[in-house]
Amino acid sequence: NMKKLASDAGIFFTRAVQFTEEKFGQAEKTELDAHFENLLARADSTKNWTEKILRQTEVLLQPNPSARVEEFLYEKLDRKVPSRVTNGELLAQYMAEAAGELGPTTPYGKTLLKVAEAEKQLGAAERDFIHTASISFLTPLRNFLEGDWKTISKERRLLQNRRLDLDACKARLKKAKAAEAKATLWNDEVDKAEQELRVAQTEFDRQAEVTRLLLEGISSTHVNHLRCLHEFVKSQTTYYAQCYRHMLDLQKQLGRFPGTFVGTTEPASPPLSSTSPTTAAATMPVVPSVASLAPPGEASLCLEEVAPPASGTRKARVLYDYEAADSSELALLADELITVYSLPGMDPDWLIGERGNKKGKVPVTYLELLS
Predict the structure, then answer these.
(1) CB of 279 within 8 A of CB of 271?
(2) Are 68 and 138 in contact, with CB atoms under 8 Å apart?
(3) Per the domain annotation, does 288 fall within a domain?
(4) The domain containing residue 250 runs over which residues?
(5) Which residues form a coiled coil (predicted)?
(6) Is the pLDDT score of 348 beyond 50?
(7) How many CA atoms lie within 13 A of 332 on its CB side?
């Protein structure tokens, strides 16, 4: 054991001397080929960007730093992370409690309850998204950093040691040959140095091949991360689509409440160049005012008395299926084309839609207005 310790100490000292002399330009250094250097640079870049993407995704899914630290500790202790109430669910709880105290039958109380229900649905959707994204995206990135990358790093350190040993052997052989030129007594020393160099070269070449294979495996890592990225986008798309549907349903329900103010006020000067669905209604042709048409929420729309404006109409493509809530609305099917126009005093989130001999109100957010 003592001999082994002494031998290890000697090897470590030799490597330290070689490394120091290289830094000061006093020793030659074996350079890796350009392809190998490119593999090393790509591996380092992959590791660095994977860490950054992982950390920022964790911030996206859990903005609270204290909660992130808590979850990290649970994972390190190999314990299940406790379920946490989302911000949306907490907001829903407060709104429901406020409605109960302020009067659940009042317009404000009823609205609070409806919004609370939607916020609870948003919170549940967020919880599902966080869970799915963690499994399909964060976990594979962590597995790479804590598994494959540690293996690569270990083999790279071993390759560095083999290179230092090789260059130290080259330096010893060079010194032995220089001494041999001065005295014939150094023949054995040269033979020994050459033998050590052959062994060191063999070990270096073997380790270089092992490391090269691991570095080339980074291509497979990219393929795996690409698949995980697609899964992340899919889960994020599902989450935002659920949120969009929940809020559309909420807006629709609130619009039927008496005494509500959802969308009843048009902007004073809407941006004419805007192409967003919510402002496109401001640029629609407007028909002359219908005498029997009351303000939104006070009377039903008299569809028989509504006609397309003389200034023209626009075509619109339906983005999503829409089920009419009552006889004043027009049911829609995704991808169909309909004719649309606006009425004075209408909620800017709605248009009049016509398809054949059928007409009715349609939500702007379900449409793509065509030029």
Answers:
(1) yes
(2) no
(3) no
(4) 9-255
(5) 176-210
(6) yes
(7) 28
Element (H, E) at 18: helix 2-23
Given 255, 275, 291, the domain boundary residue is 255
- Give CA–CA dist 149/245, Å, rounded: 42
Tell me the CATH number at 326: 2.30.30.40
Q: In the chain, at which residue ranges do the beta strands (DSSP E only) sit?
A: 314-318, 337-341, 350-355, 358-363, 367-369
- Its pTM stands at 0.62
Interatomic CA distance for residues 110 and 258, integer angstroms? 11
How would DSSP label each residue in 256-291?
Answer: TSTT--TT-S--SS--TT--SHHHHGGGS-BPPPPT
Please name every residue paired with 335 in a beta bridge, in sequence order, or none if there are none.
none
Report how far residue 208's alpha carbon sits from residue 178's, in angstroms, rounded to the nearest whole number. 30
Separation between Cα atoms, residue 328 and residue 297, nearest integer Å: 12
Highest mean pLDDT among 7-16, 287-296, 358-367 belongs to 358-367
Instruction: For residue 123, give the CATH number of its domain.
Output: 1.20.1270.60
Do 132 and 206 lie in one domain? The reply is: yes
pLDDT at 257: 67
